[in-house]
Design brief:
heterodimer; A: about 325 residues; five-stranded parallel β-sheet; B: about 725 residues; alpha+beta; six-stranded antiparallel β-sheet; about 15% strand; transmembrane helix (chain B); Transglutaminase-like (chain B)
Chain lengths: ~325, ~725
């Protein structure tokens, strides 16, 4: 395990009990320059997760609580007329932070969702003909309630594609939940967290991740899985090449986390469900039968042939 | 560059195979059309193939090809150089003339040079088609099927022998199929292939083809399940003939050339004649007296004199006849008329239906006194009679006469032709004859001993796989001591030679034997005699009696009639022997005089190989079986020996980048033998963990980590392989113990 990355994760673990995997995956997405969608019912610690991560890297943390009446300007900011200077002044919105928590993203209207997601993709915002670059690092963690719940606007497919990973929190085990209660007896421990890594160090790590070597056979392996999703009968729409790129980048970050400077098939196998599942659109009949995207991906991975030789020598 | 050279070598290989197959097309065409210059035409094919191999621009390709064709025609037809004005104007005038002929549709007036030109154009187009098949369609199936069909047709309907061509074409075709199949796989999977890999892909199939071919050649082949269709087709189209000579394609039947005996022959059910007689007969045609060590010829020692007889006049010849009161008539109806008379033993005269053949005023018979072949003639021409009768009375030999000691010694001058033996006759033939006749006192006893020798000593009747003596081999010697199987010619010739070595005059007789009963009318039966009934046997001169016929061929029974006027223990023996022979006669009644199917002087490598394999049949079967058996054993026990082999192979090798991959793969294989098989979807990492937890070690993870680094990592990294060798050996030994 990479020392600095490990320190981030163990820092988060001080607050989050039994959520090491979620923490790792979140860090992977952050290192790879992607964004994360956390999906689960309210109250399992989604927000806590993001806050502890933000604290650990010493980044500027902003939070947007999405509600049905939220407007795009509430996200990206607004220009206000200043009578003193007789000029419009830009009041930056909460999106202009290093780590942004977009809470309950599916509770707002698609218009506002788009405003967020576009700025996520471009890493910049445009207002009054002016382009403002969002400072690096820029990492959005969105949370959403499962779409079956009342009063939600499901995210459009194209926008789901912008999240590198979709992670489920899940309930803690009984022992873990007892431990959660024990800690809650006193005060929230989140206030006690210190940052373990500077923003500069984080940027440096992100650069290093880009240099992790991906052998051609591994790329072929990723493509093999991606193409297979497009051929399954239960699937209406398989994953896009953007998804393949995301899987490769996530695998690089995961390899970096393991302190390796090359990607191995294990990285790909482990990350594929997190990267691909939310980008696969099932046929309605498959959904009624209770088939999940994860189940389909597992099936695909169990059929994909792992490369164990070098890609054809040249 | 490397890829390019590989590509050309690969294509070159395909074209070489195609060239060899095309050669098999060309040989029969040129042979049957009596066209020469095979070499030059082959060169043209070579040029065409080379041009399509290198994808030469079509203008250059046309110029080269047309120049070659022009040169060939000028050279072959006028012996002119293409470049001289004479040669050029010759070609020009030919072209002019033929274009006019073609345009006006007078096809028959096309000249030979123009036909040659068209033939070349045909080859050109054919090669273009093959080029398309190989490089675009990448399939050779139709071409192959066409080739096989072509050769099979020629082999069936013409005198061309396609046996080896067929074997060659099938082997070459299978090779080509393999090459193209592999090529297809390579293209579909999109991998780059190099020599080593290509070799690995192709080799198993090539080995298999080799094995299949050898097994195919060695395996015994059943006789054709259907009768030969050729005679039927020929009869139906009115071309029927069973007569030798001319351009007859008949492979079986009555032939005149016996100078080189041996070789297999093919059955022919063409009916030759119908005979109405009271019993089965030997139908004698002629005798031969001069043995050349390869076959029979007519000797020059006896002058070829002719004797003339009238119809219904008693024929005077060397054989004894029975009394007139026993005379019977046999009516012969020739379906495919021969120009000679079929003579039953004891023949007295030939008679003709008075109304029949009345167009000839002077009907008569000519007999060659040397061979005793009798031809009918009319108006000074040899005739082919459709119908005639022969009057015969079978001689009955008195047993006491046969057994009597010769009163006067045989006149060596008069019988000289019948005692002739070649100087090259091996001594062991004479020694064998001496052994056989030991204990026999009279010539008849000796002849009987030799006659029965074959059936008592396991000689086999066989029509296929009959050997042909090589240049320094004797036909009889080969049969008696080496092959011990053959058909009537082998048996009869051997008997004649052995009789002569014992001082008994003997001659070789050809004719027909038996036939199938197709109709019965009282005591008269109608026998249908086919080409399959052509036969040869022996006549020996027994003092006090004259010429007596003998039947040495296994499975045939003798039909001499003997009156046992004295009591003798030999009588029983005679009868027993008759019976023995009778038993097999039914199954083996087909024996033929034959024309061998293969050109004996033209034995090529393949023929020699097949001969060799046939001669050592058992030996090859045993070798093949033991190779197969050993292979199976090795395959079953590979789990035991393969790990040890791997350790031995790599003992002295240091682990480095080149050997590491192979050794890791070997390790995986050995683990697989032990039941630890990595599934295709399982990563090496998780597999290594599984192995380590089973063995309670961490060696596999250690070695796998480096392997991962080697295959997935940056290629310029320095990896220290050498310290892994211990782990490798440990794991191999662990998993094989």
């Amino acid at each position: 395990m990479h020392q600095k990355i490990e320190s981030i994760i163990s820092n988060i673990e001080k607050v989050m009990i039994g959520k090491r995997e979620v923490a790792q995956l979140s860090v992977v997405a952050m290192l790879a320059g992607g964004h994360v969608l956390l999906e689960d019912v309210p109250g399992v610690g989604k927000t806590m997760m993001v806050r502890s991560l933000a604290k650990s890297v010493g980044a500027e943390f902003k939070r947007i609580q999405f509600t049905p009446d939220l407007l795009p300007s509430d996200v990206i900011g607004v220009s206000i007329y200043n009578p003193k200077t007789l000029q419009f002044e830009f009041r930056p919105g909460p999106i202009l932070g290093n780590i942004v928590l977009a809470d309950e993203i599916n509770r707002t209207s698609p218009k506002t969702q788009s405003a967020l997601l576009e700025s996520m993709e471009e890493a910049s915002i445009s207002i009054d003909g002016q382009t403002i670059h969002i400072p690096k690092p820029f990492f959005v963690m969105a949370t959403q309630n499962p779409i079956e719940y009342e009063g939600t606007y499901p995210l459009p497919e194209a926008q789901l594609d912008r999240f590198m990973l979709k992670i489920r929190m899940g309930y803690p085990s009984p022992q873990e939940e007892v431990e959660v209660l024990r800690r809650a007896e006193h005060n929230q421990p989140i206030g006690t967290l210190d940052s373990v890594i500077s923003l500069e160090e984080l940027l440096e790590l992100q650069e290093e991740v880009k240099n992790i070597y991906v052998e051609d056979s591994i790329k072929a392996y990723i493509v093999q899985i991606a193409r297979a999703t497009r051929k399954v009968s239960e699937v209406y729409l398989g994953v896009s090449p953007r998804a393949s790129i995301a899987l490769m980048k996530a695998s690089q970050a995961f390899a970096k986390m393991q302190n390796r400077d090359y990607v191995i098939p294990d990285d790909v196998q482990y990350l594929a469900p997190y990267v691909f599942a939310h980008r696969i659109i099932l046929r309605p009949e498959a959904r009624y039968e209770g088939i999940t995207q994860e189940a389909i991906l597992n099936r695909i991975i169990n059929k994909a042939i792992v490369p164990i030789k070098r890609y054809a020598e040249k | 560059m490397k890829v390019k050279s590989f590509h050309y070598t690969e294509l070159g290989l395909y074209y070489l195979v195609v060239f060899l197959i095309l050669q098999e097309w060309l040989i029969p065409i040129l042979e049957l059309t009596k066209t020469g210059h095979m070499g030059l035409i082959l060169i043209f094919i070579g040029i065409c193939l080379t041009i399509s191999l290198f994808n030469v621009h079509f203008i250059i390709s046309w110029i080269v090809k047309i120049t070659y064709i022009g040169w060939f025609i000028a050279k072959v037809y006028k012996d002119l150089s293409f470049l001289t004005s004479d040669g050029f104007s010759f070609l020009l005038s030919e072209m002019q003339y033929n274009l006019v002929v073609v345009i006006s549709g007078r096809w028959l007036e096309i000249t030979d040079p123009f036909r040659t030109f068209l033939f070349f154009v045909l080859i050109w187009m054919l090669i273009y088609l093959i080029h398309y098949w190989i490089t675009v369609r990448r399939t050779i199936f139709y071409f192959l099927i066409l080739t096989i069909f072509f050769i099979a047709t020629l082999d069936t309907f013409t005198e061309y022998d396609g046996t080896y061509a067929m074997v060659k074409v099938v082997i070459l075709g299978l090779l080509m199929t393999v090459f193209l199949y592999v090529k297809n796989i390579i293209i579909q999977s999109g991998i780059t292939v190099h020599w080593y890999k290509y070799f690995n892909l192709v080799m198993p199939a090539i080995l298999l083809i080799g094995l299949v071919s050898v097994v195919g050649i060695v395996l015994p082949k059943s006789d054709p399940q259907w009768p030969d269709p050729v005679p039927f087709i020929k009869a139906a189209t009115g071309q029927g003939d069973g007569v030798e000579g001319g351009n007859s394609v008949s492979k079986v039947g009555y032939g005149t050339n016996d100078s080189r005996l041996g070789g297999a022959f093919v059955a022919d059910d063409t009916v030759v004649f119908l005979a109405q007689a009271d019993a089965k007969q030997y139908w004698r045609v002629e005798t031969k007296d001069f043995y050349t060590s390869k076959g029979w010829e007519q000797s020059a020692n006896i002058p070829n004199e002719s004797a003339y007889f009238n119809v219904s006049e008693d024929i005077n010849y060397s054989l004894p006849t029975g009394p007139e009161e026993n005379a019977k008539i046999a009516e012969i109806t020739q379906i495919n008329p021969f120009d000679f008379i079929m003579q039953p033993y004891g023949m007295k005269r030939v008679e003709l239906d008075p109304d029949y053949n009345s167009e000839y005023s002077e009907l008569g018979l000519i007999m060659n006194t040397n061979t005793e072949k009798i031809y009918p003639y009319g108006d000074d021409k040899i005739l082919k009679l459709d119908r005639y009768s022969v009057v015969y009375s079978k001689p009955t030999y008195l047993y006491s006469d046969l057994q009597s000691e010769p009163t006067v010694p045989i006149d060596p001058v008069a019988f000289e032709p019948y005692l002739q033996l070649p100087d090259t006759l091996p001594d062991r033939v004479v020694d064998l004859a001496n052994d056989i006749v030991k204990g026999a006192t009279t010539p008849y006893q000796k002849a009987r001993a030799i006659e029965s020798y074959f059936s008592r000593n396991g000689y086999k009747y066989e029509t296929d796989n009959v050997a042909i003596p090589t240049a320094d081999q004797d036909y009889v010697d080969q049969f008696l001591f080496e092959t011990k199987m053959g058909y009537c010619d082998n048996f009869s010739t051997s008997m004649v030679v052995m009789l002569r070595s014992q001082g008994i005059p003997a001659r070789w007789v050809k004719g027909f034997m038996g036939g199938e009963i197709v109709d019965t009318n009282g005591s008269i039966r109608t026998y249908e005699v086919t080409n399959n009934n052509a036969h040869s046997w022996v006549e020996a001169y027994i003092p006090n009696v004259g010429w007596v016929n003998f039947e040495p061929t296994v499975g045939f029974s003798n039909m001499r009639s003997i009156e046992f006027d004295i009591e003798t223990s030999d009588r029983e023996e005679e009868l027993v022997l008759e019976e023995e022979q009778q038993q097999t006669v039914e199954e083996l009644e087909r024996d033929r005089e034959q024309q061998p199917t293969s050109n004996r002087n033209d034995k090529n490598f393949f023929a020699n190989l097949v001969d060799l394999i046939n001669r050592n049949h058992i030996f090859f079967v045993i070798i093949n079986l033991s190779i197969l058996f050993a292979g199976i054993i090795l395959l079953i026990t590979r789990k035991k020996w393969l790990p040890k082999l791997y350790v031995q192979l790599n003992r002295r090798k240091t682990m480095n980048e080149a050997s590491f991959e192979t050794m890791y793969t070997q390790l995986l294989k050995v683990l697989e033998f032990r039941g630890y098989k990595r599934k295709n979807d399982q990563t090496l990492h998780s597999f290594a963990k599984e192995i380590d937890s089973t063995f309670g070690t961490n060696e596999m993870s250690k070695i796998t980590h480096v392997y991962e680094q080697y295959i997935y990592g940056k290629h310029d990294e320095n990896i220290d392989f050498n310290k892994l060798k211990e782990s490798w050996e440990y794991l191999i030994n662990r998993s094989s113990s």
